[in-house]
Design a protein that fits this description.
By secondary structure, this protein is α/β, with parallel strands linked by helices. Helices cover 36% and strands 22% of the residues. The chain is built from 15 helices and 16 strands. Helix 8 runs parallel beside helix 9. The longest helix has 19 residues. The two termini are 25 Å apart. It binds N-(iminomethyl)-L-glutamic acid and fe (iii) ion (FE). N-(iminomethyl)-L-glutamic acid binds next to helix 3.
């Protein structure tokens, strides 16, 4: 045995039966073990159970004493835009004075402002900035992180961003999942030729990204004034033909029907969903498309929150993610997002943990390998300096993470 975590006040397993996801009332079941231990061998969980049953699992192992602490699965952040340059605090202030996100974008700010900064930035510079954000996310407990391109919006600049993601994934210790989001906005040079940009995406950019194998997923910002349902479907269908799996920014600012589209196309996830319709909720639940909710974005924009309770009641697979980006959610603090999910969307602490682990892993097609603490799974674990999982979100605004373990190795210590 390589590593043994002993005497944890609580180990929150999330699943103990090989579940692929958690829905309905099950989402609130932490599947926790009190006074527990975890044995790790060759980067995998070999055993988890009550200390009283630990027998010889200590043998030859380095021991971590987790007395008084809570162990949770490594968090999976399934939606980030953390490859960017520049910052947009002036927009933040403009919004406080009454301007809307859409008005700022229409005046040349918003996504286009970050695109201008990214186009000017060298790859190494972008990489260094993204690495800093990843270190923060890791320190807050994220061991696997989806990262989107989408601030390049030309073939060359999108490839630059995707290469940053690939390089940082090789570097580790995190595991990154790359998503191509060339359809994040219509860039300024195509402002009077939207169809031209959609053509550029489907005939040049997507095939080249696929040929280079730089993206596992393709995402589209399906939104009034950004990409219509029709345009989104064209782009996503082309991506699917090229072998990419799909994610959709859906029903964030207006109820356009992106949720229904994501379900119909068999997308892995529909994200945001602040304005999802009743039909959208049914469609997502029916299709098994993961509903990824981003409480930090609603909080930071001052918008109404996604209907988490209704999604859970209708049986949708609900995940949570940070949306870490310079415009609508500049934070890496996943724990405070958990508190916001509790107080504003009425999710229970155990539901927040299920949504940030197994269901998020499911949205990334990695639920067989991560997202729960079960024998056989990769040893991605976070030891938190709290005696039970409720305190993680109850005592908010501070970082409770004590140690982060990725593939059986301690990769961060507070
Ligand atoms: O997820 N919705 C679109 N994309 C980001 C915001 C990007 C930005 O404003 O820079 C989001 O909220
Ligand atoms: Fe986003």
């Amino acid at each position: 045995m390589d590593l043994f975590i002993r005497n944890a006040a609580e180990v929150v397993c999330i699943s103990r039966t090989g579940a692929r996801d958690k829905t309905g009332s099950n989402l609130a079941e932490p599947e926790a073990i009190q006074n527990a231990g975890i044995a790790i061998d060759h980067g995998r969980i070999a055993w988890v159970g009550p200390m009283a049953e630990s027998q010889d699992h200590f043998q030859g192992a380095t021991v971590i004493d987790a007395t008084g602490k809570t162990v949770i699965p490594g968090l999976v952040d399934s939606h980030t835009h953390l490859v960017f340059a520049g910052s947009r605090e002036m927009e933040f202030e403009a919004r406080l004075q009454g301007k809307t996100y859409q008005q700022i974008a229409a005046a040349g700010g918003g996504i286009q402002a970050t695109v201008n900064s990214v186009r000017q930035a060298a790859l190494e510079d972008l990489k260094e900035q993204a690495r800093r954000r990843l270190r923060e996310l890791l320190a807050f407990g994220a061991t696997t992180i989806e990262v989107k391109s989408g601030y390049g919006l030309s073939l060359e600049d999108e490839l630059k961003c995707l290469r940053v993601i690939a390089a940082l994934n090789r570097e580790g210790p995190w595991e990154l999942v790359p998503t191509f989001l060339g359809a994040h906005a219509v860039p300024a040079e195509y402002a009077s030729n939207r169809a031209g940009y959609v053509r550029q995406l489907t005939t040049e950019m997507l095939p080249e990204v696929a040929r280079l194998g730089l993206a596992e997923y393709c995402d589209v910002f399906c939104e009034t004034g950004v990409f219509s349902l029709f345009e989104s479907e064209l782009i996503l269908t082309r991506a699917r033909e090229l072998g990419m799996k799909l994610r959709v920014h859906a029903d964030e600012l207006t109820p356009l029907g992106g949720g229904e589209l994501a379900a119909r196309l068999g997308a892995a996830s529909a994200d945001h969903l602040l304005r999802v319709s009743a039909r959208g909720i049914e469609a997502l639940a029916e299709a098994g498309t993961v509903a990824i909710l981003l409480p930090g974005t609603a909080f930071f924009l001052g918008e109404a929150y996604a209907p988490a309770r209704r999604l859970i009641e209708r049986g949708a697979i609900v995940a949570l993610a940070s949306d870490c980006n310079p415009g609508t959610c500049p934070t890496e603090n996943l724990q405070i997002l958990g508190t916001i999910a509790c107080t504003q969307m009425k999710m229970l602490p155990a539901e927040v943990l299920s949504a940030f682990t197994l269901n998020a892993a499911r949205s990334l097609g990695r639920e067989d390998r991560m997202g729960s603490i079960e024998a056989g799974k990769q040893a991605d674990l976070v030891i938190c300096d709290v005696p039970n999982h409720r305190q993680l979100f109850y005592h908010f605004g501070v970082n409770h993470v004590w140690q982060v373990i990725k593939r059986g190795r301690v990769v961060h210590a507070a």
